Amino acid sequence: MNEKQMFAERLKNAMQGAGYDVRSSVLEREFNLRYWGKPITYQAVRRWLRGDSIPSQEKLQVLASWLAIDPHQLRYGGERQASINEPSAVWEVSSSSEERRLLALYRSLPSEQRKIVHEVMETFAKAYSK
């Protein structure tokens, strides 16, 4: 198995581990919701899942963040040797019913409208940050 195929297997496993169906359409949709550059195509994500290509480092970072996996592990496999062995902070915040309802509404929007909502929220956060 070559490097690209091994990456494809790690990507599929990460998607399954995060609770997503391993389908190109799912990967395309979820990636484009999180990536603020030019949207990727169905064919591009299909090549990732088939083991024909590996995404750029920038796209790999977005994938790893979305799937809650270390980017190095997603790209190369195995455990990453960290130079500092500090446990990462885990912030557990329970969401209220209002927050869950807003998130459900947000998720029901088409991707273009989600991007607009995200930009509006960032603008408010910058304007009202202390």
Automatic annotation (TrEMBL):
InterPro entries (UniProt xref): Lambda_DNA-bd_dom_sf (IPR010982)
The organism's place on the tree of life at top rank: Bacteria
Molecular-function GO terms, alphabetical: DNA binding
Protein name as it appears in the record: Transcriptional regulator
Organism: Vreelandella arcis
Classification lineage: Bacteria, Pseudomonadati, Pseudomonadota, Gammaproteobacteria, Oceanospirillales
